[in-house]
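Comment thread on ticket #2218

A.B. wrote:
> Attaching the input chain for the structure job we discussed in standup.
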Amino acid sequence: MRGQARTVGAVAGLVLLLQAGFAIAHDEPRYRTTHPDIALRNLDHQIEQARRVLSVHANNVAAVHSLLDHLLNRVQFRGSYSDFDEALSITERLLQALPDDPGAGLARARILERVHRFDEAIALLDDIQARIGETPSSRQARSWLQTTEQARIRITIARGRPEEVIEAVSHRAAEQPGFATHTQLAFALVALGRIDEAERSYLQALGFWDQMTPFPVAWVEFQRGELHVGRDDARAATHYRRALDYLPHYVSPRVHLAELLAENQDLDGAIALLEAIAGQSEDPEVDSRLAEFLMAAGRSDDAAAVRSRAERGYAALAARHPLAFLDHIAEFWLGAGGDPQQAWIHAQGHLANGASDRALALAIEAAAAAQRPERCELVAQASSRRGRLPGLNEQLDAHSQGC
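C.D. wrote:
> Ran it. Output below, let me know if you need it in another format.
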């Protein structure tokens, strides 16, 4: 969220929202869900249960996919990045045991995608597709082929080329409506800057929610918040608050809500939000942002300790998953880390792995901070994408002079 554009109207609206205590909007329902503590305990139980199955049936493809589902769900909502390690381990073992099984390959490709090892994932998807062939004869083979195609689409969007897949994604959502198809369509629409359509797709996705678990509802609220950052911050804050109302332990909306508070000069509120989970989450972004806010509040001694913890956390993640956290590490060095050259190194690596609008915005900001001559080249590369992402627009406005 660093560097997103702000408007006078958005900030004024945010002030009113802050004063109102982030009450849930009157015109939208508050869905009844499983209590968040129960939902999280159920998730932990499902993980343990899947582990027990695998301890008896080590090469059971369905069991690996089940455990992978639950581990990645916990990463999504708790920032439990050690679950990535387990996911990589179980899928590697499965693929070694069953190298010709498309189901084993798809499990491996899925976690490779999640840790941004896109080239490896694509190579594996190519191999799977070659094994299946152009005209699969069985229902299972057709399902595998469809799964490979959807994985390719996700990677294409992540790499900043949504225009290549929007037609296919739109067609699939129309022909096979469901939570997965509508959220994938929303991702593609967001990447193209088509915000109103994206929001409609997210709301349509909730029509396929199971009416029980809070995870999909909280996730959709967070994504809706992301849609409006830099466009209508008051609205973004409402959705972040709603996400936390459904799932208080959800790390991402808590961090992003804290950023909005800090930008509105409510450092005490921002600090309180993050101190409530500091030391409990494996996500170093909590400490990274908290250190920034503590420094801004004049609590330099407290900030130094938290900053050191964030640096250690990012170093550990970078050693295990070198491509997955390049953007967050770059943001750390631009902020609490205070090293623009390191920020540039990591932003450049992130951009090389996938030239999304956000990656371009971050690279321009880091190049400017580090006074790199590549700044103007990046500005030229990004100019054709103006209007799609407020953060990119802001970086172009701030750093195009002299190019």
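A.B. wrote:
> Thanks. Noting for the ticket: Residues 3-26 have pLDDT under 50 and may be disordered.
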